[in-house]
Amino acid sequence: MNPTDETILIRQLTQSGLQRQAFERLVNLYSQPLYRQIRRMVYSHDDTNDILQNTFIKAWLNLDSFRGEARLSTWLYRIATNETLNFLQRRRDMPTLDEAPPSVTALLTADEYFDGDETELQLQEAISTLPDKQRIVFQMKYYEEMKYEEMSRILDTSVGALKASYHHAVKKIYEFFNLRD
User: Fold this and answer.
1) Of the four, 13, 64, 98, 167, which is 20 to 30 A from 74 by CA?
2) What is the DSSP string of 154-181?
3) pLDDT in tens, 84-125
4) Residue 152's closest CA among 90, 94, 77, 92?
5) For residue 14, what pLDDT is reported?
6) Vertex 108, ends 121 and 55: CA angle to 5°?
7) Which segments in the chain show pLDDT lower than 50?
8) Does residue 102 sit in helix, strand or coil?
């Protein structure tokens, strides 16, 4: 979205008569990229949809707190990232039965919405071994091709720390594949 369109959309989001229509446009513009980002963290279509819905609910409820200091996409990615991390933390904190959780490969191959090949499955398995924050940084850089400066605003972390996280993530993924050979 170019800066002029974003300025218009932000203005419409603050006007009561245009707010619903503008928010619908916002949802249409950002649903797919946010879905992809969330999905790469939780692997389940249903969980991803729940988190995406929570993201837009939080955005709607907090429209008044959007100060315009960051781009709308940055603000939405930040909400989605926080919602995703909260979901992952709740899932880790939940007591489990004695059964092992399904592997990423099992989750993805059982999901009718996954259309990747064997290489993508292996990459997802490698990514799943990363700590949450490294996984987010890797996915934003690798898949979304985000610049470190934007990631810094989304994750509220320094560019240097993000570069280090990405470097460590790539190194761990490389080691994952070397151990499999």
Assistant:
1) 167
2) HHT--HHHHHHHHHHHHHHHHHHHHHH-
3) 999 988 887 765 544 445 555 555 555 555 556 677 778 888
4) 77
5) 85
6) 115
7) 97-100
8) coil
Cα-based angle 170, 130, 53 (whole degrees, multiple of 5): 115
| 55-64 tens-digit pLDDT | 999 999 998 8
Nearest Cα neighbor of 103 from 126, 73, 135 is 126
Residues 77, 37: contact at Cβ < 8 Å? yes
Residue 166 vs residues 48, 58, 106, 109, 136: alpha-carbon distances, Å: 23, 28, 26, 27, 9
Quick one: pLDDT at residue 53? 97
3-class DSSP state for residue 24? helix
- Letter for the amino acid at 98? D
- pTM (two decimals): 0.77
User: What is the DSSP code (8-state) at residue 33?
Assistant: H
Chain centroid offset of residue 96 CA: 25
Q: Is there a contact between 130 and 166 (Cβ–Cβ < 8 Å)?
A: no
CA distance 36 to 40: 6
Number of alpha carbons in the 13 Å side-chain half-sphere of residue 28? 7
